[in-house]
Amino acid sequence: MEKTLSMGIVFADNPYQLGKYNETNFKFAPNNDQLIIKTVYSRSSSNSVGYLDFIELNVKRRLLMSGNQMMFRAPITDTNAQIAKYRLGNASSDLILWDITDPVHANKVNAQLSSGTLEFNANADVLNEYIAFYDGDGLYKTMFVEQVANQNLHALKNIEYLIIAHEDFLDEANRLAEFHKTIDNLSSFVTVPELIYNEFSSGAQDITAIRDFVKMLYDNSDPGQEIKYLLLFGDASFDYKNIIPGNTNLVPCWESIESMNIVRSIASDDYFGYLDDGEGLSGRVDIGIVRVVVSTLDQAVSAVDKVVSYATNTAEVMKPWRNMITFVADDGDNNLHLRHAEELSDYVYQHYPVYNIDKIYLDAYKQIATPGGQAAPDMNKAINDKIENGTLIFNYSGHGGESGLGHEKFMQIADINSWTNDDKLSLFITATCEFTRYDDPTRVSAGEFVFLNKNGGAIALMSTTRATFASSNLALNMSIYKNNLFERTNGSYPCLGDVIMNSKLIGGENDSKFILIGDPALKLAYTEHLVETIKINDRLVIENVPDTLQALSKVKVEGVVTDRQGNQLTGFSGLVFPTVYDKYSKIETYGDENSATTFFVRKNVLFNGEASISDGEFTFEFIMPKDISYNYGFGRISYYARSENEDGAGFYENIIIGGFNEEAERDERGPDITLFMNDTTFVPGSKTDQNPDLLAFVFDESGINTTGNGIGHDIVATIDDDNSQSYILNQYYKADINSFQSGEINYPMSNLADGPHVLSLRVWDIYNNSSTAFLDFVVVSQDEMIVENLLNYPNPFITETNFIFDHNQSGQDLDVKIIIYSTDGRRVKTIETRINPEGYQSTPIKWNGLDDNGAAIGKGFYVYQVLVKNESGATAQDTSKLVFLR
Length: 886
Fold this sequence. Notes:
Elements: E1 69-73, E2 83-88, E3 95-99, E4 107-108, E5 112-114, E6 117-123, E7 129-134, E8 161-165, H1 170-184, E9 188-191, H2 193-200, H3 207-220, E10 229-233, E11 254-255, E12 267-268, E13 288-292, H4 297-311, E14 324-329, H5 336-351, E15 356-361, E16 368-370, E17 373-375, H6 377-389, E18 393-397, E19 400-401, E20 404-405, E21 411-412, H7 413-418, E22 426-431, H8 446-452, E23 458-464, H9 470-481, H10 496-503, H11 509-512, E24 514-517, E25 529-536, E26 539-540, E27 547-551, E28 554-562, E29 574-581, E30 585-588, E31 598-601, E32 605-608, E33 611-614, E34 617-623, E35 633-634, E36 636-642, E37 647-652, E38 655-660, E39 672-677, E40 687-688, E41 693-699, E42 716-719, E43 722-728, E44 733-735, E45 742-748, E46 755-764, E47 770-779, E48 787-793, E49 801-807, E50 814-822, E51 827-835, E52 845-847, E53 860-869, E54 875-884
Parallel strand pairs: 8-9, 8-10, 10-13, 14-15, 14-18, 18-22, 22-23, 25-37, 27-38, 40-47
Antiparallel strand pairs: 1-7, 2-6, 3-4, 3-7, 5-6, 11-12, 16-17, 19-20, 20-21, 23-24, 25-26, 25-28, 28-34, 29-32, 29-33, 29-36, 30-31, 33-34, 35-38, 36-37, 39-41, 41-45, 42-43, 42-46, 44-45, 46-47, 48-49, 49-52, 50-51, 50-53, 53-54
């Protein structure tokens, strides 16, 4: 007989439907005891591919004992019958029969043997399962696999922070647990999946065993000490059976049965958090569940290092980036994503105005056509600059995927891996499709790369694992902010695990596709104290009575750091970082895919400085730039303050900026500029690698212009007089402490071509006087190692001398060997050390004039050689001479 199974049509241009699955059941009567099954796939297209999953046959046959043990059952055919009679042929007197319909409560069946047939009766209203077997050597035997040590997870209770880690990562998981025990007093427990399986699934891999374990902790703990956070420490995979080489099924996740349609397909960890009685495959998550998507020990070490660094207040991490939230939006779809970003940013500003809002919207940047499609290089640069300069939160709305963000590819994996913001790690919120798919063992998604970047990237991601819908994304994205992320409970900010749990109030498939990558017990880098403005130009600030600041007018601001009750913190001493913003700028988009629209953002910085705080008080001064927007409107002063291990933030918007100070003093001199590469030891014309840091020190009596408001008045660096290699550096200028007149620019350049170059830097003061400085340098790839200009100082020397040399290996560990010879060729001294220079000159290597035996060398001339090897094994050398005097 023939049977047709219709699969329907899968359209090639449907990105969401990868295939279709179907099955059918039918009966047939065979003509003889031999069955031949033939399958034929009728293609609807030459590109169509079909796969046979399985064929299952259920055959009714005569009930005859076969082998030493046999299971059987009889489908009910007579629905009116109450009793069924079974006759098992080919039986003997030592055949044993059990009813195993309920395998936990098996019963021996009393049957009668007659002429080799075992007969018994049973109820016919259920499908009964039986096993017949001969006792003895013929029974299936268990196999010894391994000895299992005694364990008792069932005795655990009052565990607030549970970490389930792959065995390779136990040391790092315990390090993280101990860290939170020390700083947060969290009771924690670390275990591996296999121990959970031993007690909750008879040793077999079963994700429900993990949930049952978590449920036990949830139910059995004392009130107020229930489990709060679950960290899954290891990557996951859709391949539970480890069929794929290099599989990453380290700590399994929950996978939906649906896999052909990526909209309905789900990979989620929420399943482990459905802990209320009666919840099955869905419900409301009751704990904060987070995953660390690491698959190697190095990645695990880096992940914990990032948490410890982020949560430990040091001068390196306590900077104004903690005051910044950046909203990024795709174009197209009738400006839907831009409108979503505007709705989110408006909510944050209205409810949490202490944070500065920046906006990077694709349609505000010019796009160009490339062989690979549309591109927006200026937006790509804006994003990379924002990450490098730091932003507390990076919130994206729009299209995306496993390879990056946007059809215009304005954030790709190559960009992500180039970030070096290890002291300014962001929380990424990506309301897009499968940016952080973590269950594909054949590839690492872009979101995973953001987290795994050991030199920067994200401290955590609230991101997606599958295709999602924009409207549902907005709802969940809004719930992250609404009465959640920045709200205190009993005076304490929430941990990230609390935030993701509280965000999933809506429920449904879209929420299950959002995952938090990171650490559930970690808190965002919140500021604790407040910064308030007390006086402007020696006049007390008065509510509803704004101060007016004109172009070229001198400004003096005084303020204090307070606790949240408004009490001045007289013990707070450190630094305040004030940023003065001009009025809102109205930005009109290009309308590349839809009609043009407008949005507002404070993009012009009038002053960016540092001032000392003593006993909770501070003062700073500056001159308003000539390049303000002259119409009158409200500006903004933003503050970030830090002491040794505490910080605070504040803002003041009761200032009107506009107009011109007609009595301003004259200034016709441009700024003084001094240029270096990497550090102040750089000599013009020297060699660098392909990624040097431009270092500039600038001074001007009136102050430096960084507003970006005047056409052509930006701080601009240009390579080889090539406008395509020009860089606006306004945001990279940092004023010196307690000075508006001097500061420095530190800009990381990248991928410079080998060979000689000339860099020009043009800087304007606030009167719009400019100066330009030039610097010659030669780029040599780090692959070609250079060592030159070897010398020692003092030379001649009497008691000790220092060896230094130039190189092109900035930031690399260098193994250095210095060998000193007498004029007759005898080796006198060998010095070996390892250095890691930040610039292109080595750190000094000291020698006290003693030989390898500890004896003083004789006076006279000596020749010495330096041998240097970098991390990749490349070597270089140089020689020079010294004179020793006694």
